[in-house]
Recover the amino acids of this structure.
């Protein structure tokens, strides 16, 4: 029954809106009927027809009033009024296109920018990860007094997996890139060795076949591999019978056990990182090798799915209990704690601060645009005071007036939002194109319904935000004054003027804050670029080589290959220097860095010696142009059989041999106590940090390639004498001459590798700079608006002043003073707020002092200069007012 | 619409609902019926009646239909809806309570 009532109501409302004329006619007929009926009744009582007609009319009362009241009862007035208001607003906007354009464009720009940034935030921070119950997934790290996030040892992992009570499942994975051969040209593939049930943890199931079981983890068992959808299509022609087929990775046969569906995204890893997303080509089964007693080496990234209802703290306590138990029997497990990080937080940790700063910046721009629009509307309302007073005088309700003004501001904000939405659609695409290549979840950023929903909400919110103050102020208009006064003495009401001044001060302050933020980021970026990187990237070519263990069975054959390759390359007159090493600067690192001791030194309590270890050929440092600080580089005498040597970096020298000459000092690994295995430091090289913005370089040492244990994957660095572009072909030819089955991967210039490291700060700087410029422009428009309005209002005053002998210079000074008072107040507020800026930007800044008088001063000058310019234009106009015209006007 | 009309309006709603609960009537007949029953004590002005009818209709308590009247002309007849019947019962109860309460106050104080 209630339903039918609502149905009736809905039907009637509908009718009242859409068939208004019909409803009005109905009412007309009804009232007409009353009159006739009443008249007939009166005639019956003995009145004359004429008299009865008049009496019936009188009985009915005010015809129009009844009509109006009935309309009110239909409750559709609001809608009709809205339509009328909008029509009226549109007409008045058309009469004042400059004003309309100013508001609509500034709203369009700011809404477009805000919506674009929102799309980024939505895709990266808000959207759920593409796994089952992603909230239950946590990354598991070790944590000690010297390392905050350390990878896990395989045997420890196996114990965690077996002995925990809080995880539904756990898996570990580590990067082991592979070379696929036997399918035409050999290709290098991004691949991971994963433990049993890796995909089950993520909640993914293979499209075909199966994933790995614990039986596949056994050392010496069959080699098995799961393919990604991408690889299955590109290399195996999407063949349905690929499962069970044998393929060759690093010249070793593997059996395909499964193929993942599209969208099996890599959860991201920390060491030698591969970004989150569709970034992995294949997965092999991880094999537990060697004695389960060995707990020293840590290299596994670990992920777990907590049981429902388990909190992160409970899971952490659970694994810590397992760890404590392990520490009783294994020396290597002492001093470690468990550290869990929710997967989502781990993935977006690097980009979150930047995104939030961008959101903050764009919100400031939106606020300025709103203040601007409010300001322009207030100015307009002031010049419409007479119209408004007249409306009030003839009986318009104040609420009705507020509604009308709000309709105007909403129309403006919605026009802005339509344009802004279009801008955002393009903006999102531009942003995604500008994003640093390894920006996590960049592929999840799309133009979608959320974007439009957000834009609509912003449009309504801003429409009310910038419309409310002008609307309320207009509705408070005093009736008598505006109608009495001639426009000659008309100055806008004090309240409204104060509000407008306040808005300008606020706008200038916000723009100043944003400018300070941009300036700090600019300084930070310039600090980054002008830092001493410790190596020279220009014109050096790099490439990855990976020697299959099956072909290069021992260290000797690998060393021999590298020696022959380097000899061949360096004998080319076009090549100045060629080196190989285990890795390149700024391309990620392996934190596996302990396990050695230093002759004559003991580590501080509860800590062990640690340093990153790498390998380098004789000319590796020369090719990278890493300077030698002390001692010598490696040379042709550092080969297997002669004295074991290492090079260390300056950080390591300072850390472990402070005030001493490190050259000639000795160190060795815990598992190589024999005297012949000791490593002698022969030189110290300059520091290279992990990333350009790292605080300092980590201690590190290098083995000579000729003495190092076998490492399948190496990078080559070449520097030419003339044309660097010819280097790639030369390298490929040299490798092919030695081993035609070897792939040369990732051929690129070191400049690109280095440039890549700056892409995130560059992206941030570009956007914040853009927003700051937008903010400054909007604030200038706001200042211009207020001053220009006030000049118009006081045309006569200036006319009189000039008639009385004031020079143009005086008048300009007078106007400028008025504007600059506001700008100075805004700048002062902005500078004070800007002092907190370096804190807000936090990790995005590199070597920037929190209080930098130069930066702050520069920002103040720019803001004040812009404001002065914005005031100067109306000031000029003030001088041009002809006294006679001004006095005669109106 | 000023404040005092609130009471009258509420009462008017009740009177209208009650009047048409017996049989469908048009506006004029409703006004006449109320006058007649109350011995002309209550005068329903048309300025109040028609907006009230509109409101009741919009609220779904009553329904309107064009039908031929006793004089042979088309008139808009109002009927109680089922929801309106329930509403009438509620309003009657309320009225009883209110008038009893007022009566008590008047007699005792």
């Amino acid at each position: 029954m209630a339903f039918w009532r609502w149905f009736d109501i809905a039907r009637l409302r509908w009718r009242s809106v859409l068939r208004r004329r019909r409803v009005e006619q109905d009412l007309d007929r009804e009232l007409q009927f009353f009159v006739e009926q009443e008249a007939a009744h009166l005639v019956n009582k003995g009145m004359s027809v004429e008299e009865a007609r008049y009496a019936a009319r009188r009985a009915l009362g005010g015809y129009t009033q009844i009509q109006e009241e009935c309309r009110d009862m239909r409750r559709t007035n609001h809608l009709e009024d809205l339509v009328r208001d909008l029509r009226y607003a549109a007409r008045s906007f058309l009469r004042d296109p400059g004003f309309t354009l100013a508001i609509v464009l500034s709203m369009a720009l700011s809404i477009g920018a805000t919506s674009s940034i929102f799309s980024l935030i939505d895709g990266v921070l808000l959207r759920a990860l593409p796994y089952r119950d992603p909230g239950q997934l946590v990354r598991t790290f070790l944590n000690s007094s010297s390392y905050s996030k350390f990878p896990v040892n395989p045997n420890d992992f196996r114990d965690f997996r077996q002995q925990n009570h809080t995880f539904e499942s756990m898996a570990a994975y580590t990067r082991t890139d592979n070379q696929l051969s036997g399918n035409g040209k050999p290709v290098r593939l991004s691949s991971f060795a994963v433990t049993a049930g890796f995909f089950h943890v993520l909640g993914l199931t293979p499209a075909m076949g199966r994933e790995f079981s614990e039986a596949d983890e056994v050392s010496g068992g069959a080699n098995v591999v799961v393919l990604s959808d991408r690889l299955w299509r590109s290399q195996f022609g999407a063949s349905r019978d690929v499962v069970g087929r044998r393929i060759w990775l690093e010249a070793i046969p593997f059996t395909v056990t499964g193929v993942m569906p599209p969208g099996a995204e890599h959860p991201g890893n920390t060491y030698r990182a591969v970004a989150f997303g569709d970034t992995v080509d294949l997965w092999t089964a991880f094999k537990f090798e060697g004695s389960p007693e060995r707990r020293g080496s840590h290299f596994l990234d670990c992920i777990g799915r907590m049981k429902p209802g388990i909190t992160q703290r409970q899971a952490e306590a659970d694994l810590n209990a397992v760890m404590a138990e392990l520490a009783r029997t294994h020396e290597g497990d002492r001093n470690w704690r468990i550290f869990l990080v929710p997967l989502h937080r781990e993935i977006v940790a690097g980009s979150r601060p930047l995104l939030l700063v961008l959101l903050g910046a764009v919100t400031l721009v939106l606020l300025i645009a709103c203040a601007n629009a409010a300001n322009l509307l207030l100015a307009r309302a002031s010049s419409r005071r007479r119209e408004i007073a007249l409306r009030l005088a003839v009986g318009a309700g104040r609420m009705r007036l507020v509604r009308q003004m709000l309709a105007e501001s909403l129309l403006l904000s919605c026009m802005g939002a339509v344009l802004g939405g279009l801008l955002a659609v393009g903006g999102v695409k531009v942003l995604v194109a500008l994003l640093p290549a390894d920006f996590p979840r960049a592929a999840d950023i799309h133009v979608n319904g959320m974007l439009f929903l957000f834009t609509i909400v912003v449009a309504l919110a801003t429409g009310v935000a910038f419309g409310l103050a002008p609307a309320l102020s207009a509705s408070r208009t005093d009736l008598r004054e505006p109608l009495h006064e001639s426009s000659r003495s008309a100055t806008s009401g004090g309240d409204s003027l104060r509000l407008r001044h306040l808005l300008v001060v606020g706008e200038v302050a916000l723009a100043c804050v944003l400018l300070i933020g941009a300036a700090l980021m600019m300084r930070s970026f310039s600090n980054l670029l002008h830092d001493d990187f410790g190596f020279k990237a220009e014109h050096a070519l790099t490439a990855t080589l990976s020697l299959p263990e099956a072909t290069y069975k021992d260290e000797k054959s690998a060393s021999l290959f590298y020696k022959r390759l380097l000899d061949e390359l360096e004998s080319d007159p076009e090549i100045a220097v060629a080196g190989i090493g285990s890795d390149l600067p700024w391309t990620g690192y392996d934190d596996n860095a302990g396990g050695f001791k230093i002759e004559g030194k003991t580590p501080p309590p509860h800590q062990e010696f640690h340093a990153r270890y790498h390998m380098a050929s004789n000319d590796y440092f020369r090719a990278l142009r890493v300077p030698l600080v002390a001692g010598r580089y490696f040379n042709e005498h550092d080969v297997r059989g002669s004295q074991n040597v290492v090079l260390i970096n300056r950080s390591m020298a300072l850390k472990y041999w402070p005030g001493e000459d490190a050259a000639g000092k000795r160190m060795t690994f815990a598992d190589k106590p024999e005297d012949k295995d000791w490593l002698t430091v022969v030189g110290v090289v300059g520091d290279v940090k992990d990333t350009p913005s790292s605080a300092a370089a980590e201690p590190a040492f290098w083995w000579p390639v000729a003495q190092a244990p076998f490492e399948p994957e190496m990078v080559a660095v070449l520097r030419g004498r003339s044309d660097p572009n010819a280097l790639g072909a030369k390298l490929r030819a040299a490798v092919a001459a030695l081993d035609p089955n070897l792939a040369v991967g990732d051929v690129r210039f070191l400049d690109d590798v280095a440039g890549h490291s700056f892409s995130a700060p560059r992206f941030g700087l570009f956007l914040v700079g853009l927003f700051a410029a937008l903010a400054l422009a909007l604030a200038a428009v706001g200042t211009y608006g207020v001053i220009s309005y006030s000049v118009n209002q006081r045309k006569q005053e200036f006319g009189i002043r000039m008639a009385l002998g004031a020079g143009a210079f005086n008048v300009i000074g007078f106007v400028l003073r008025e504007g600059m008072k506001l700008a100075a107040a805004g700048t002062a507020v902005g500078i004070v707020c800007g002092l907190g800026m370096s804190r807000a930007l936090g990790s995005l800044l590199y070597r920037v002092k929190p209080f930098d008088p130069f930066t702050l001063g520069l920002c103040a000058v720019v803001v004040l200069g812009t404001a002065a310019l914005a005031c100067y234009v109306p000031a000029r106009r003030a001088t041009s007012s002809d006294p006679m015209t001004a006095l005669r006007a109106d | 619409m000023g404040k005092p009309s609130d009471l009258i309006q509420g009462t008017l709603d009740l009177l209208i609902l009650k009047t048409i609960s017996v049989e469908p009537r048009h506006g004029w007949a409703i006004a006449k019926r109320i006058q007649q029953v109350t011995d002309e004590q209550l005068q329903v002005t048309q300025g109040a009646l028609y907006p009230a009818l509109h409101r009741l209709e919009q609220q779904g308590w009553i329904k309107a239909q064009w039908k031929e009247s006793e004089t042979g002309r088309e008139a808009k007849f109002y009927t109680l809806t089922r929801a309106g019947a329930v509403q009438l019962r509620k309003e009657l109860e309320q009225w009883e309570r209110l008038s009893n309460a007022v009566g008590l106050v008047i007699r005792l104080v």
Observations:
- Chain B has one domain: 5-108.
- Confidence is low (pLDDT under 50) at residues 1-7 of chain B.
